[in-house]
Structures are given as structure tokens and as C-alpha cells.
């Protein structure tokens, strides 16, 4: 097999080759025994600097190579979602061969899954720094580095790194994570373009399909909020609250620590009523610092005896949590509120 065709196969296979390892038949107490596929021959470049070793020679060499065995054990733990054990195996491999590029990437992946993306970045950067294979291979560490940056909210950096991965090898994973980064930057058209590009490569990818559905919902919510903010009398605050005065009051305004007595009528954008003291016929009382942020902010703008409408984006309502049967994660909420008393 020549180097070019080998690289092409590796790019097609990607990471997590499930056929590489099998546990010994002793309940998993011993180190894994190994099967070998094209991905293993690619790893030969790290150890021997020779991409064209025959399968027989390579297998013989690898079965006696401790660094390689630790790497393979780490892969098995990754597949089993035993991330701490995987990290330990990858550390052992790195100790034996500090220049091993693939091991740093795999350790970084395990760190991300362990909720440690900042540490993962160090490993991805080390893999990139140690690169001896030319640019073709770099799409892989760039992809995982970009994903980690996106998880950390470093969206602009993530876009740049993921763009480098896509330039080298257009891959669905990088398109997905770059769409997430674009979404974080509120560049929804670019996010949509990346999702479409990813789906052309993997039409049934669950992550891309989920991202596509979520983006469409987000675009609908944004369109609704933009429409409300453009209405006559709308006041939009820095938090995203859209506030309308329906009837002006003449009394004092409450503070965040005050207890208030109100009538309210809560609906979703489609008009579905999810809660209403008006319908129940009984006012409600509560402290303003014990309710959703939209209410805490909005009611402090009211005067006693006044009526207002609050349009609450999800981030100042219930966020990505549900509340009861009708309020789903990410829901925009509308409230008509009458301030009856300040206690």
C-alpha cells in the first residue's frame, strides 16, 4: 500500500476505530489483546518513520512495543467511556515516547469528555507542534482543538481553528462545531451554511440534524423577538427584556427585595396559556428576588397600579430548563402584569 492511498483510507476512517482492540477473556483484568487495521499502519509513522511496513512486520514489531500497547489500551477505555483510565494509559504512552502525535490528540479527546477542555488544548497544541507528517494530518488535531475552544466559549478562536481543519480536509465534525461557534457569535447565516455543508457530507449525522432543528427553532424565536421589539411603545433593555407599558401607575416602584402582589397572565408566543392568576381569580404574592430575572427586572420598572407586558427571552426566563408541562427548554415567555401592591 502506498503512502497516498494509506492516508486516504485513514481520513475516511477517522478516529475511534472500534475494531482495533478486544479484551482478553478474563473479565478485562489483563491488558487488551489487539487486532490490526489500516489505522495501526498509519501509527507506524510515529514509531518507525516508515509508512510502508508490511502487515506481518508491523504486527510483530507492535506486539512488543509498550508505548503502542498503552495507546491501544487508552483507545479501548475511550470506547468504553472510561476517560480517566484512558488518560492514564495515554500518559504512560507519552512517557515512553514524548513525541507521539496521535497520543496527544487522543488524550485531549479524553480530557474533553472528562470536562477538562482547557487541559485538552495543551495536548492538541503539542500534537500540532510535534507534527512530522505534513499538513494533511493536521485536520484532526485542528478539529478537536476547535471543538474544545467552542466548548470554552472562545468562539472567534474556534472559528479560525476549525476553518483550518476544513481547508485541509472538509469534514462534517468541523462543520458542526464551526456552526456552533458561529451560533455563539450570533452569525446565524454562517451557522446555517456550515450545517448544510456538513449534511452534504453526512446526510444522516444525528449531531448535524439536531443542530439544524435547533437552529431553525432559534431563528423562529429571534424573528418573533425582533418583531416584538419593533412594535410601537416597545422598550428593549440590555438583558433582552422587551417591555410595554399598557397602563401607567401613579404609585411607587418596587425594589428587588420587596414583596409584591400582582395579577398576571402568562402565554407562549403561539398564545398558549401556561399560567394565569387572572384565570384563577386570585392574585399572587412573592418577593421579586425569588422569581425569574425577567420579572425581577420588569416589575421594578412598573409603578403601583400600573399594567405592563413583559416579553422574556429564554436567557432571562427558564433558560434551557423546562417548567411544568407547557414551558419547554429555550421558551420565550410573555406576561401581562398588573401591580396591585408592594409589601
Compact summary:
This protein has 343 residues and is an alpha+beta fold.
Could you please describe the fold and organization of this structure?
The chain is α+β, with helices and mostly antiparallel strands. The protein has two domains: 217 residues, Serine Threonine Protein Phosphatase 5, Tetratricopeptide repeat (Alpha Horseshoe), CATH 1.25.40.10; 108 residues, Chitinase A, domain 3 (Roll). Helix content is 51%, strand content 13%. Strands 3, 4, 5, 6, 7, 8 and 9 form a seven-stranded antiparallel sheet that branches. Strands 1-2 form a two-stranded antiparallel sheet. Strand 3 and strand 4 form a beta hairpin. Helix 4 packs antiparallel against helix 5 and helix 5 runs antiparallel to helix 6. The N terminus is likely disordered.
Amino acid at each position: 500500500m502506498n503512502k497516498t492511498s494509506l492516508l486516504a483510507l485513514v481520513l475516511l476512517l477517522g478516529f475511534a476505530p472500534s475494531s482495533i482492540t478486544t479484551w482478553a477473556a478474563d473479565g478485562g483484568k489483563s491488558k487488551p489483546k489487539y487486532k490490526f487495521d489500516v489505522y495501526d499502519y498509519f501509527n507506524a509513522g510515529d514509531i518507525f518513520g516508515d509508512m510502508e511496513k508490511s502487515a506481518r512486520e508491523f504486527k510483530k514489531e507492535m506486539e512488543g512495543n509498550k508505548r503502542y500497547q498503552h495507546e491501544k489500551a487508552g483507545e479501548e477505555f475511550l470506547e468504553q467511556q472510561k476517560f480517566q483510565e484512558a488518560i492514564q494509559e495515554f500518559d504512560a504512552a507519552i512517557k515512553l515516547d514524548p513525541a507521539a502525535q496521535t497520543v496527544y490528540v487522543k488524550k485531549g479527546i479524553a480530557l474533553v469528555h472528562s470536562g477538562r477542555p482547557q487541559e485538552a488544548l495543551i495536548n492538541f497544541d503539542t500534537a500540532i507542534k510535534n507534527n512530522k507528517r505534513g499538513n494533511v494530518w493536521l485536520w484532526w488535531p485542528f478539529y478537536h482543538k476547535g471543538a474544545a475552544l467552542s466548548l470554552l466559549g472562545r468562539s472567534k478562536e474556534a472559528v479560525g481553528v476549525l476553518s483550518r481543519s476544513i481547508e485541509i480536509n472538509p469534514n462534517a465534525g468541523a462543520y458542526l462545531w464551526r456552526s456552533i461557534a458561529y451560533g455563539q457569535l450570533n452569525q446565524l447565516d454562517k451557522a446555517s451554511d456550515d450545517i448544510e455543508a456538513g449534511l452534504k457530507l453526512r446526510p444522516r449525522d444525528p449531531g448535524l440534524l439536531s443542530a439544524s432543528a435547533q437552529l431553525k427553532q432559534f431563528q423562529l424565536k429571534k424573528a418573533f423577538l425582533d418583531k416584538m421589539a419593533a412594535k410601537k411603545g416597545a422598550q428593549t433593555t440590555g438583558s433582552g427584556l422587551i417591555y410595554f407599558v399598557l397602563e401607567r401607575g401613579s404609585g411607587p416602584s418596587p425594589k428587588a427585595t420587596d414583596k409584591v402582589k400582582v395579577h398576571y397572565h402568562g402565554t407562549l408566543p403561539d398564545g398558549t396559556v401556561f399560567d394565569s392568576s387572572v384565570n384563577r381569580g386570585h392574585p399572587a404574592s412573592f418577593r421579586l428576588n425569588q422569581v425569574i430575572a425577567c420579572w425581577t427586572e420588569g416589575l421594578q420598572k412598573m409603578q403601583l397600579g400600573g399594567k405592563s407586558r413583559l416579553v422574556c427571552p429564554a436567557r432571562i426566563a427558564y433558560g434551557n430548563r423546562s417548567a411544568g408541562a407547557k414551558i419547554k427548554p429555550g421558551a420565550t415567555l410573555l406576561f401581562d402584569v398588573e401591580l396591585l401592591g408592594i409589601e
